[in-house]
Design a protein that fits this description.
There is one protein chain. The chain has 239 residues and is of the alpha/beta class. It contains 7 helices and 11 strands. Helix 5 packs parallel to helix 7. The longest helix is centred in the middle third of the chain and has 18 residues.
């Protein structure tokens, strides 16, 4: 008889309920969305509450903003990443300077070393799009994706990759990121009259029965992302 797949809580109670307890242990999940949808917040919540509530050490890799900027932004939500870093529970890697094709291998080596040194069980790469889009040739992108697949499998920790969806586009990031992912969570902004609302859907998740429903969510201090029933039940289709 097969043992039940172990789950890693995301730190978002309602999302964990949808996923049957959390992300599959050792999996790689793509969190894709446009500007302002809260991709970084969801990913940060995964690392922060992993350390604070579940005792899981985590590595947060940023290719888009400096480590100090990241920590200050998170502090505005009530999440003190510097304190966690000082305690040895979290490591923050600022790899903006390595966001170049010839430095991609160095960046991956630094990620592996940080995970191993910390003994991390959780990893976030924010964003994978920022790393991939520096390549001009499709063959180069495929090569990086192949290497990244091997790296993530070798690390053995549960990983979240964030990916940017440009305004008006339906493609997830560059279209390549989804091929290294066991799961895809999409975040969107939808207009209702003159109001923008955020919604989330789990498009796929390995070894998980998903309901393919949209859920409205808000973002608040200390709590972070909080899911609510999406108001389609009230007759709103989001058009």
């Amino acid at each position: 008889m097969r043992s039940k797949l172990k789950r890693v809580p995301t730190g978002i109670v309602q999302l964990d309920e949808i996923l049957g307890g959390g992300l599959p242990e050792g999996s790689t999940t793509l969190v894709a969305g446009g500007p302002g949808t809260g991709k970084t917040i969801l990913a940060s919540q995964f690392i922060y509450f992993g350390a604070v509530k579940y005792g899981d050490k985590g590595v947060y890799v940023t290719f888009e903003e400096g480590a100090e900027t990241f920590k200050n932004n998170m502090l505005s939500l009530g999440w003190n990443f510097e304190r966690l870093r000082e305690k040895g529970d979290v490591e923050i890697l600022d790899l903006i300077s390595l966001r170049e094709p010839e430095k991609a291998e160095v960046a991956l080596d630094e990620i592996v070393e940080a995970v191993r040194a910390l003994g991390a069980k959780r990893l976030v790469i924010d964003s994978i799009t920022a790393l991939i889009t520096v390549f001009r040739e499709v063959a180069e992108v495929r090569g990086l994706i192949s290497v990244l697949q091997k790296v993530l499998r070798g690390l053995g920790c549960t990983t979240i990759l964030t990916a940017e969806i440009p305004w008006g586009s339906k493609r997830l990031g560059t279209g390549a990121e989804e091929f290294i992912s066991d799961g895809i969570i999409m975040l969107e902004m939808i207009s209702r009259g003159n109001i923008l609302r955020r919604r989330l859907i789990v498009l796929k998740m390995r070894a998980t029965e998903i309901d393919l429903k949209y859920y409205q969510y808000d973002i608040s201090k200390n709590t972070g992302i909080n899911l609510l029933p999406y108001p389609e039940a009230e007759g709103w289709s989001g058009e």
